[in-house]
């Protein structure tokens, strides 16, 4: 089977990484896969090339140009399936045959008309979690997955190091986390990420929140999950919005890093309903209590927790698990 996979952006983000993993899964299943991107010099194209994937850039100059050229190019393609990763390519190719519309985030109110058009005529509408299954009738849930990440080897001494991984934003719970840590003087915050795609007014609010713990915060910028995990004792993922999946959660599970999540969106679905370190979204006191609970765990208790997380990753969120789900999705279309 010949499969075209269309990117949402030229820059690497969550949906772009999942598109590349999906393309690799298609190739491993014996299919011919081509990744369509705005330009052949962007981040996504370079990463696809590094992974040995076939790349097709459309020479776009901006979003409107990309959508026009993507529609024209994929309409002429002889591929058996067009798999659109994100709202932009799904909207651009609305109505084309043999099409998968993969929606990674719950649409905001102003995006709902675009989503309605984007899903028109799709052979499958794919979402990353059951918590998002209500965005359209007959959605197909395809959990994300991630590549294996080695367990950290460093044994930390001194204050408990609490990690944060991803876009710096208030909806991701950064304000709740700084509120919690402000009540825990024997902790430090290790930030991996930047306020990419965040408007300037929210950036000021983020900086005000970080000022509360600035004297014990280490800001790493954009680094790999592995680089962060080598520096921390526990990862906090405390979003206050309806998190559609939680990629950093499964990365921590792969590496066997202790993890605290909020109950927002899909996070409970990813960790399992009975996960003990799940707190109410937006509740800084509960988050602080969970951080203290991690600090009080014995070595044996920590090992038991991380073994449990890694086993769940291996069963549900490893490349093997992802490849099986891709095969099942493609089988639906044949």
From TrEMBL:
Glycosyltransferase subfamily 4-like N-terminal domain ranges (all copies): 12-135
Alphabetized InterPro entries for the sequence: Glyco_trans_4-like_N
Membership in a protein family: Belongs to the glycosyltransferase group 1 family. Glycosyltransferase 4 subfamily.
Keyword tags: Glycosyltransferase, Transferase
Lineage: Bacteria, Bacillati, Actinomycetota, Actinomycetes, Propionibacteriales
Database matches in CDD domains: GT4_PimA-like
Record Gene3D superfamilies: Glycogen Phosphorylase B
Domain of life: Bacteria
Molecular functions per Gene Ontology: glycosyltransferase activity
Transmembrane regions listed in the UniProt entry: none
Name the UniProt record assigns to this protein: Glycosyltransferase involved in cell wall biosynthesis
Pfam families (UniProt xref): Glyco_trans_1_4 (PF13692), Glyco_transf_4 (PF13439)
The keyword Glycosyltransferase belongs to this UniProt entry's keyword annotation: yes
Residue ranges the record marks as coiled coil: none
């Amino acid at each position: 089977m010949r499969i075209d996979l269309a990117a949402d952006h030229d820059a690497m983000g969550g949906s772009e990484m999942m598109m590349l993993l999906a393309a690799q899964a298609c190739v491993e299943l014996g299919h011919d896969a081509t990744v369509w991107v705005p330009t052949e010099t962007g981040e996504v194209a370079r990463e696809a090339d590094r992974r040995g994937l076939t790349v097709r850039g459309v020479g776009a100059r901006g979003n409107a140009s990309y959508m026009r050229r993507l529609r024209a190019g994929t309409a002429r393609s002889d591929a058996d399936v067009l798999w659109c990763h994100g709202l932009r390519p799904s909207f651009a190719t609305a109505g084309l045959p043999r099409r998968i519309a993969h929606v990674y985030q719950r649409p905001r109110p102003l995006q709902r008309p675009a989503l309605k058009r984007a899903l028109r005529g799709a052979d499958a509408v794919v979402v990353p979690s059951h918590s998002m299954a209500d965005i359209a009738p007959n959605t197909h849930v395809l959990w994300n997955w991630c590549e294996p990440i080695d367990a950290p080897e460093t044994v930390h001494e001194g204050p408990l190091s609490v990690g944060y991984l991803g876009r710096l934003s208030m909806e991701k719970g950064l304000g709740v986390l700084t509120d919690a840590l402000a009540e825990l003087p024997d902790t430090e915050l290790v930030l991996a990420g930047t306020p990419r795609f965040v408007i300037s007014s929210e950036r000021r609010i983020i900086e005000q929140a970080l000022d509360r713990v600035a004297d014990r915060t280490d800001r790493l910028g954009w680094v790999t999950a592995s680089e962060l995990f080598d520096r921390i004792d526990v990862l906090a993922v405390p979003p206050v919005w309806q998190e559609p999946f939680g990629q950093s959660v499964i990365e921590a599970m792969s590496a066997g890093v202790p993890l605290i999540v909020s109950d927002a969106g899909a996070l409970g679905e990813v960790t399992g309903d009975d996960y003990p370190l799940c707190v109410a979204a937006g509740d800084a006191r509960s988050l602080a209590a969970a951080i203290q609970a991690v600090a009080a765990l014995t070595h044996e208790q920590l090992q038991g927790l991380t073994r449990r997380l890694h086993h769940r990753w291996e069963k549900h969120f490893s490349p093997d698990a992802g490849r099986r789900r891709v095969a099942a999705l493609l089988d639906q279309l044949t």
